[in-house]
Design a protein that fits this description.
Blueprint (H helix, E strand, L loop, with lengths): L1 H40 L3 E6 L5 E6 L2 E6 L5 E2 L4 E2 L5 E2 H16 L5 E3 L6 E7 L4 H7 L2 H6 L2 E7 L8 H11 L3 H9 L13 H10 L7 E3 L5 E3 L4 H11 L1
Parallel strand pairs: 8-9
Antiparallel strand pairs: 1-2, 2-3, 3-4, 5-6, 7-9, 8-10, 10-11
């Protein structure tokens, strides 16, 4: 009996050792792949994971989700659809994870207009100079009355180092960001202000998940509504998805 127990223990240790070696080898291989791809493609690669497609790895980068062959010879910018049953956009599922992780990361630096009787929370990339962003903001009372909390993330459409970017920083750094954003969307001049802020990080996050215009609305499940939606229409979409 003692010999059997000893043999079982030895086998368990051996299996664990092999598993650890395999994990370390896989990590080392991924690290080498990250370095190689970063150098060749000028991408900041955050993580590499298995993809739904045999022979492809899924790469999470600062410019979105991409794929690379196991032998690292082929790099793909593509949408992957699973058609085994009902058609599933696997790439969008990966992007949903990125979006939800990002809005969680930036929750404390968003400018939030909270509904008193909150039912839903949406995160909206916004630019104070954008006409449709202004139209959406003009419906804030209605949105809040419908139970929709809006969290704004910064998306200066002209890019970092533009005047729009500097104005956006002034909004986020003002003594009352809520009022400053409302005033800016009404066309009023905002006093220059500066502080430690996440405006550039918001913008880079938007690039990572494919934002190309404003408003860009991230829904509670990580899906996206690209563009302006009237308050009631947005509430209807949220209700049907819940």
């Amino acid at each position: 009996m003692k010999l059997n127990r000893l043999f079982t223990l030895i086998c368990a240790v051996a299996v664990a050792s092999v598993a650890n070696m395999a994990s370390a080898f896989a990590q080392s291989k991924d690290d080498a792949l990250i370095t190689s791809l970063s150098d060749k493609l000028n991408l900041k690669i955050e993580t590499i994971a298995d993809s739904p497609v045999p022979g492809l790895r899924q790469i999470y980068t600062d410019r979105g989700v991409f794929y690379v062959s196991d032998n690292a010879e082929f790099f793909l910018q593509a949408r992957v659809y699973n058609i085994k049953g009902p058609i599933i956009d696997e790439t969008d599922l990966a992007l949903k994870e990125l979006r939800l992780a990002g809005v969680k990361r930036f929750a404390d630096s968003a400018i939030e207009f909270k509904a008193e009787n909150e039912k839903y929370v949406v995160n909206v990339f916004t630019d104070a100079t954008c006409g449709y962003c202004r139209k959406l903001h003009n419906e804030m009372d209605q949105l809040n009355d419908l139970g929709i909390t809006v969290r704004y993330l910064a998306w200066p459409r002209a890019g970092i180092n533009s005047q729009v970017y500097r104005d956006t920083v002034s909004i986020w750094c003002s003594e009352d960001p809520h009022q400053a954003l409302t005033d800016a969307k009404a066309g009023k001049q905002i006093a220059d202000a500066n502080c430690e802020n996440n405006v550039a990080e918001h913008f880079k996050f938007g690039q990572q998940i494919g934002v190309s215009g404003t408003p860009n609305i991230i829904m509670p499940d990580g899906s996206v509504v690209p563009g302006y939606q009237p308050a009631q229409a947005l509430a209807d979409v949220l209700e049907s998805a819940s």
